[in-house]
């Protein structure tokens, strides 16, 4: 499942669905809203493009790390502290590929997928600056 | 031989310009414009951005060139801001303008 959506997901169910013959490891990455003195976080995406890019990242990771399954769910809209933002579930034959595939996916998302976060703070709102100021991600 | 109509420089098109994150707050999110044939990407964005001083200054510097962090897309593919001065827009194009991404 590759999706950009408002709703949360049942991570346990995704893990159960990911399991298949020959799989020896599943790595779950769950990015959550941190309590950085904020009230809420608002996420915005260039949805059509971001979804295509997530699908491409999943395909590239599958090929590069010989993965059995990849799920990526990126949430948008208003999220409270502690809520899930991004869930990545990677299944592989062995832990090495599962960990490396998961890491590749999160870093590639952060480098280039058009999604933005705004912190709704007690002292005013603030757009979170990107980690790649030149925007020179994978999808140039 | 080309038809005469194809050479008509005054022919208008429909182009959608989308601004995201802080740019969207300042300039609006989805703007439909009808530029004349031959309009380049940078000129189109400049014209729209001039509707709001803060929006313009968020995207362009004092020399009226794109700030180095601005990202442009045309129909889902990135366009270098240097190439935006020569890239002509076409009918039905979707142009996106946004700051560095911060997802994940």
Question: How would you describe this structure to a colleague?
Answer:
The complex is a heterodimer of chains A (140) and B (104). With 140 residues, chain A is of the alpha+beta class. Chain A has one domain (2-122): Molybdopterin biosynthesis MoaE subunit (Aldehyde Oxidoreductase, domain 3), CATH 3.90.1170.40. Chain A contains 3 helices and 8 strands. Chain A has helices at 11-18, 47-65, 95-112, and strands spanning 2-5, 25-32, 38-45, 69-75, 77-80, 84-92, 115-121, 124-127. The two termini of chain A are 25 Å apart. Residues 135-140 of chain A have low confidence and may be disordered. Chain B is an alpha+beta fold. Chain B has a single domain (13-98), classed as Roll (Ubiquitin-like (UB roll)). Chain B has a 5-stranded mixed beta sheet. The longest helix of chain B is centred in the middle third of the chain and has 9 residues, at 41-49. Chain B is globular. Chain B starts with 14 loop residues before the first strand and ends in a 6-residue tail after the last strand. Residues 1-6 of chain B have low confidence and may be disordered. At the A-B interface, β3, α2, α3 and β7 of A face α1 of B.
The first-level CATH class of chain A is given as Alpha Beta
List the total number of helices of chain B: 3
Shape of chain A: elongated
Gyration radius of chain B, rounded: 14 Å
Shape of chain B: globular
The CATH homologous superfamily of chain B: Beta-grasp domain
Tell how many strands the DSSP assignment of chain B holds: 5
Proportion of residues in β-strands of chain A? 35-45%
Which class best fits the helix and strand makeup of chain A? alpha+beta
Instruction: Write the H/E string of chain A, N to C.
Output: EHEEHEEEHEE
Beta-strand segment tally of chain A: 8
């Amino acid at each position: 499942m590759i999706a950009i959506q408002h709703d949360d997901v049942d991570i346990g169910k995704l893990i159960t669905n990911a399991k298949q013959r020959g799989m020896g490891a599943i790595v779950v990455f769950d990015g959550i809203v941190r309590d950085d003195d904020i009230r809420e976080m608002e996420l915005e995406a260039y949805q059509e493009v971001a979804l295509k890019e997530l699908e491409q990242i999943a395909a590239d990771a599958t090929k590069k790390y010989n993965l059995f399954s990849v799920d990526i769910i990126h949430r948008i809209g208003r999220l409270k502290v502690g809520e899930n933002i991004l869930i990545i579930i990677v299944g592989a034959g062995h832990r090495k590929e599962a960990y490396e595939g998961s890491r590749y996916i999160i870093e590639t998302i952060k480098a280039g997928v058009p999604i933005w976060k705004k912190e709704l703070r007690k002292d005013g709102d603030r757009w979170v600056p990107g980690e790649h100021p030149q925007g020179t991600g994978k999808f140039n | 031989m080309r038809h005469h109509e194809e050479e008509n420089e005054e022919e208008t098109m429909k182009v959608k310009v989308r601004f995201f994150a802080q740019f969207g707050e300042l300039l609006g999110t989805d703007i439909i414009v009808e530029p004349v044939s031959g309009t380049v990407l940078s000129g189109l964005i400049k014209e729209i951005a001039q509707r709001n001083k803060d929006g313009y200054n968020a995207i362009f510097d004092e020399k009226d060139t794109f700030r180095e962090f601005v990202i442009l897309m045309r129909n889902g593919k990135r366009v270098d801001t240097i190439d935006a001065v020569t890239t002509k827009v076409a009918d039905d194009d979707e142009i996106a303008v946004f700051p560095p991404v911060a997802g994940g």
